[in-house]
């Protein structure tokens, strides 16, 4: 699936294309997509294809096309503090984007059939937390993954506000999926070749909306040939944050507010000075005279002897102006992590500073 939008040169250009094509429609979803570089979830030798609107599969590792993930994120209608279950969580790319929106008091769980993919997802999650410049711009709901078949989830599991299934669901499993939802919750899944949004409006009431035609690999049915018994999948418990962790969240939030207030006062209530543009030099052009005579057209040029000299001077001036502007365009200032700078400047012991920064490398 995919190919609905043009490829991008980088992650931001891909997101621009998804916005222009109306796959990304809300600010929260856009921020999440921009914060996590899709290429980081590819194996190194396949990164050239990361910004194409195409699905990618290598062994058990799989990523859906960007246009599909965009539709899924929009359909889930995510809000801070909700609980989310990702069935077939794969690389963790989608779960990590969801975690940026859910915030520190959400719940973010994933079930993945293949243990090697779980390990891959954990590596990518660790890389994002330790190295991404985007991490400090959000308060993150870190995903937790368990191995197992999503059709064997324990019947006494908790229900979720939002559920996504990343494999094709047949009609006989529709009710099973619906029962994972709380009342008021939203389920998004490929149901009989259609990406479908189902909202639970009551204990036994549902609203269904078909979003678009898709082609997904079907859910893998449980295999009980070895033992003859079902392998029950126990989802992660809903963890209660420690007082120490809550204090870290509160302190980081306070520092971010201070940074925002300082930026507002520096920029005059957030209004930046208008951008100053260099006045472009007007290039002189030769005048053309067109004469109509007896249904025939005659064109002549009226030239000034000094035109050639002036034009060459103007071209040279334009070339110099372009060279002057190129360095700033090609070498933008590196982004500044103001939260990190502020924390490191605090009169605190180093271990406490690094705890506030989640022991991040940069």
Automatic annotation (TrEMBL):
Residues 310-324 have a biased composition (Acidic residues). It is found in: Cytoplasm. Its main location: cytoplasm. Pfam families: PCMT (PF01135). InterPro entries: PCMT, SAM-dependent_MTases_sf. Keywords: Cytoplasm, Methyltransferase, Transferase. Signal peptide: none annotated. It comes from the Eukaryota. Residues 302-336 are annotated as: Disordered. GO terms for biological process: methylation. One of its GO terms (molecular function) is protein-L-isoaspartate (D-aspartate) O-methyltransferase activity. The keyword Lyase does not apply. GO terms for cellular component: cytoplasm. Belongs to the methyltransferase superfamily. L-isoaspartyl/D-aspartyl protein methyltransferase family. This is Protein-L-isoaspartate O-methyltransferase domain-containing protein 2. It comes from Cuculus canorus (Common cuckoo). The lineage of its organism: Eukaryota, Metazoa, Chordata, Craniata, Vertebrata.
């Amino acid at each position: 699936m995919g190919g609905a939008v043009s490829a991008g040169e980088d992650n931001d250009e891909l997101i621009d294309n998804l916005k222009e094509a109306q796959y990304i429609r809300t600010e929260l979803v856009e921020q999440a997509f921009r914060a996590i570089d899709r290429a980081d979830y590819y194996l190194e030798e396949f990164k050239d294809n990361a910004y194409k609107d195409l699905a990618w599969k290598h062994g058990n590792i799989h990523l859906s096309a960007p246009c599909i993930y965009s539709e899924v994120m929009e359909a889930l209608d995510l809000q801070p503090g909700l609980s989310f279950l990702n069935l077939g969580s794969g690389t963790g790319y989608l779960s990590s984007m969801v975690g940026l929106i859910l915030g520190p008091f959400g719940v973010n769980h994933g079930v993945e059939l293949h243990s090697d993919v779980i390990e891959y997802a954990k590596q990518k999650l660790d890389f994002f937390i330790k190295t991404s410049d985007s991490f400090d711009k959000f308060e993150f709901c870190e995903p937790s993954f368990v191995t197992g078949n999503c059709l064997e989830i324990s019947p006494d599991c908790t229900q979720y506000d939002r559920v996504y299934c990343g494999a094709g669901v047949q009609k006989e499993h529709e009710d099973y999926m619906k029962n994972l939802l709380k009342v008021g919750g939203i389920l998004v899944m490929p149901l009989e070749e259609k990406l479908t949004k189902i909202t639970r409006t009551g204990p036994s009431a549902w609203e269904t909306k078909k979003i678009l035609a898709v082609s997904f690999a079907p859910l893998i049915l449980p295999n009980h040939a070895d033992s003859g018994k079902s392998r029950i999948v126990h989802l992660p418990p809903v963890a209660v944050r420690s007082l120490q962790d809550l204090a870290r969240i509160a302190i980081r939030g306070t520092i971010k507010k201070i940074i925002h207030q300082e930026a507002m006062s520096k920029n005059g209530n957030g209004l930046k000075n208008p951008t100053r543009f260099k006045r472009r030099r007007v290039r002189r052009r030769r005048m053309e005279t067109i004469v109509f005579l007896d249904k025939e057209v005659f064109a002549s040029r009226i030239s000034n002897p000094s035109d050639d000299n002036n034009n060459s001077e103007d071209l040279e001036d334009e070339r110099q102006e372009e060279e002057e502007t190129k360095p700033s365009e090609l070498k933008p200032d590196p982004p500044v992590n103001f939260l990190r700078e502020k924390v490191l400047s605090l009169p605190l012991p180093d271990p406490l500073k690094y705890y506030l920064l989640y022991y991040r490398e940069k």
